[in-house]
Amino acid sequence: IAFGCAVGIVFVLKIGAMFSRGATLTFFCGGLLLLVGSRVVFARMLASAIARGAFARKRVALVGMADQLKKNDLIRRIERSGYSISHTFALPGVDAPAAELKDAVTARMREVIAYAQSANMDEIILAIPWSDADLVDDVISTLKVLPIPVKLIPEMTISRLLARPLYEFGDSKAVEIQRAPLSPLQRRLKQALDQCLAAACLFFLFPLFGIVALAIRLETPGPAFFLQSRVGFNGRRFRMFKFRTMSTLDNGPVVRQAQRNDQRVTGLGQLLRKLSIDELPQLLNVLRGDMSLIGPRPHALAHDDEYDRLITTYAMRRKMKPGITGWAQVNGCRGETPDVGSMRRRIDHDIWYIEYWSIWLDIRILLMTFVQVMRPKDVY
């Protein structure tokens, strides 16, 4: 911000000739790197010092259910955050009769209050199941006599929810459990870039399309293009275009993946598949809005049905439009998937791409795709 203000002042006063551009840019880039680097180093040193207890720690008493105190490495996580646990108080189990349970909790909380007053505690931390509303209310109301902070630690399930964005609906609040992978603006931006690039590529590749289509028709009888049903964004079906590279046109309930030395692949088809030229007609699908340049690769319907049953996260890849290439493909997950493990690795890459999408990631994948095409591997 300071650099931007300085540049603005220089521009308005027309005194740019007084300053060296090289020195100014060097100052900006070097200062930015030093600033970011120093903050990262300082943050790590500070976190390490807090974990070692180098600073004065707050003395706290920990109150909770016995099982809650033992699981999730609770005590270690609290101490690592700069707290010193002076004493732990385990509340009686919830399986006791209601009347006895209430009396036992009251007696134990009196012990907590007496200890907090005599030992001069800084805070009290509660590890109580949020689902037991009566127990939480009784404990909180009992501790109101103390003039020190009381904090309630959420269970793991609640903690994951609290880490998500909070929204207000009038007087009510809601936690965003799931968001769309892309905002409406991001979707429009991605689609606009896809269609502009697809239209430009089709314009320049039109002569190549004609040559390849003619060569396919001359080599073997049949159509030059192969249309196969695929599942796209949000489970919608579409017809995907490809150059025909096989002697068969499989598009039924059983589709066998291409394997090494597959007899169905034609001579020209081997070259087209090796250089991924057979995928170029999918630019038409991008132009129609069925696909994107970058995204999870769509599979044949037969494979979708199979892996939907075998991999629970398989359907999550349909949260974005399928792509001609994707993060899985540039990371070596191309070609045949002979077992569930290889498909699961591909799905993990697809889900990572959906969660961390950005325009810059798409550009990176495009550049990596050109490198992959130059050195094809596991493509039959």
Could you characterize what this model shows?
This protein is of the alpha/beta class and 380 residues long. It is 50% helix and 14% strand. The protein has helices spanning 2-13, 21-52, 66-70, 74-80, 98-118, 133-142, 156-162, 184-219, 267-274, 282-288, 301-310, 327-330, 340-355, 359-374, and strands spanning 58-65, 83-91, 123-127, 150-152, 166-169, 172-175, 225-231, 237-243, 292-294, 323-325. The strands form 4 sheets. The protein has a 4-stranded parallel beta sheet. A two-stranded antiparallel sheet has the order 5-6. α5 (98-118) runs parallel beside α6 (133-142) and α8 runs antiparallel to α10. The chain is extended and about 95 Å long. The mean pLDDT is 83.
Going by helix content, strand content and strand pairing, the class is alpha/beta
Given as residue ranges, the uncertain stretches (5+ residues, pLDDT < 50) are: none
| Helical content (DSSP H or I, runs of 4+) | 40-55%
- By DSSP, the count of extended strands is 10
Q: Report how far the terminal alpha carbons are from each other.
A: 53 Å
Q: How would you characterize the largest beta sheet?
A: 4 strands, parallel
Task: Give the overall form.
Answer: extended
